[in-house]
């Protein structure tokens, strides 16, 4: 029950042994994945290294949580799946009425009017031909009409909110990551909206900067690679799986790469740069894809998995997957307090 790991560098490769009585070291070793970059110290034997310590690229410790100068809010949503018969339209319209300051308690309306940024982390539409038999699950069968409906819904949001929109694996872009922005030919209406910024997946977005404050850096990643690591890593698979998605996000931050294993996701290989590397430490790391609503903190980085706006599908039912729909994550950029608000309408079944 010990672990043998093979490592390589430009000089060659060698096997390494981690003893199962090493406690935290052994647990770290079990979370290693192929192709990631690590450092080690240990004792060299005959064709083997006995590992004493594993070093990850990691994010720096002891850095205070960055807080903005202005009392303003950022809201995070994902996986609208517009065009699906399971799209929670009434719940999403309720969310729009809240963000416009029209519904909620007095305090909730005050918060809504302080929202300046809306991050949409992929899968805004359900797409077409994404999986076998999808036609039977679609309310809108044209991807162009799905995006037009998306634009109509976003046009209802007040114009002083900056909407930052990235694609996901259901969107009409290439599946391979990094994914480019949604093309103008797919939905010209989104391009024409002055308060929408279309970005790639992944993206690092800076918001809330002032003359004396550098701003909050938000790493947006839809999360397509997460499926691989939920299945592969014992510490995730045996401790809640998708329900423990923030732990996976922590692990990927430690690795400073959001898809370190080459076959974790379809990818575009660039010999000059790896766009999945987390070279700048984010203040907020937001993802979607898994239809869970989770918030956590890892040192100076707030972790958000930003829910969905689609009720349980037959595919999720078959997998035993329980989505947490109709929620929006809200972060006060001045205090860095983060929470979820639930907008699920009673007539719409989770």
Structure explained in plain terms:
With 350 residues, this protein is of the alpha/beta class. 20% of the residues lie in helices and 25% in strands. It is built from 9 helices and 15 strands. The protein has helices spanning 24-30, 89-99, 106-113, 143-154, 188-192, 226-232, 234-237, 245-255, 314-319; strands spanning 3-9, 12-18, 39-44, 48-55, 73-77, 115-121, 162-166, 196-198, 203-207, 216-221, 284-287, 293-298, 301-306, 327-332, 338-342. The strands form 3 sheets. The chain has a 6-stranded mixed β-sheet. Helix 4 links the parallel strand 6 and strand 7. The mean pLDDT is 93.
Short note summarizing the structure:
Helices cover 20% and strands 25% of the residues.
How many individual helices? 9
Radius of gyration: 21 Å
Query: Could you tell me the number of beta strands?
Result: 15
Strand portion: 15-25%
Structural class: alpha/beta
The end-to-end span amounts to 42 Å
Give average pLDDT, whole number: 93
Q: What percent of residues adopt helix (DSSP H or I)?
A: 10-25%
Q: Largest sheet, order of strands side by side?
A: 8-7-6-5-14-15
Largest sheet: 6 strands, mixed
Contiguous runs where pLDDT drops below 50 for at least 5 residues: none
Topology order in helix (H) and strand (E) letters: EEHEEEHHEHEHEEEHHHEEEHEE
Dominant shape: globular
């Amino acid at each position: 029950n010990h672990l043998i790991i093979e490592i390589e560098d430009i000089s060659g490769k060698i096997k390494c042994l981690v003893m199962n009585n090493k406690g935290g070291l052994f647990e770290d070793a079990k979370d290693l994945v192929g192709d990631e970059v690590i450092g080690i110290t240990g004792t060299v034997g005959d064709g083997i290294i006995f590992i004493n310590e594993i070093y990850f690229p990691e994010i720096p410790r002891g850095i205070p949580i960055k807080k903005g100068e202005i009392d303003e809010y950022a809201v995070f949503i994902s996986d609208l799946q517009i065009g699906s018969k399971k799209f929670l339209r009434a719940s999403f319209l309720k969310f729009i009425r809240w963000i416009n300051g029209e519904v909620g308690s007095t305090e909730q309306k005050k918060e809504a009017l302080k929202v300046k940024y809306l991050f949409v982390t992929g899968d805004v539409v359900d797409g077409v031909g994404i999986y076998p038999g999808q036609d039977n699950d679609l309310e809108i069968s044209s991807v162009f009409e799905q995006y037009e409906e998306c634009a109509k819904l976003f046009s209802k949001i007040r114009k002083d909110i900056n909407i930052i929109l990235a694609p996901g694996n259901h969107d009409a872009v290439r599946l391979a990551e990094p994914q480019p922005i949604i093309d103008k030919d797919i939905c010209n209406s989104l391009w024409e909206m002055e308060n929408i910024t279309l970005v790639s997946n992944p993206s690092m977005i800076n918001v809330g900067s002032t003359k004396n404050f550098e701003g909050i850096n938000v790493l947006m990643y839809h999360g397509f690679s997460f499926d691989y690591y939920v299945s592969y890593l014992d510490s995730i698979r045996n401790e809640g799986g998708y329900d423990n998605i923030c732990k996976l996000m922590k692990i990927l931050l430690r690795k400073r790469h959001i898809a370190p294993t080459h076959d974790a996701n379809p990818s575009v290989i660039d010999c000059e740069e790896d766009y999945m590397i987390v070279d700048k430490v984010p203040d907020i790391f937001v993802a979607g894809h898994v239809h869970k609503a989770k918030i956590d903190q890892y040192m100076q980085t707030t972790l958000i998995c930003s829910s969905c706006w689609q009720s349980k599908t037959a595919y999720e039912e078959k997998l035993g997957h329980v989505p947490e729909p109709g929620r929006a994550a809200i972060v006060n950029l001045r205090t860095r307090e983060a929470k979820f608000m639930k907008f699920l309408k009673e007539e719409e079944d989770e």
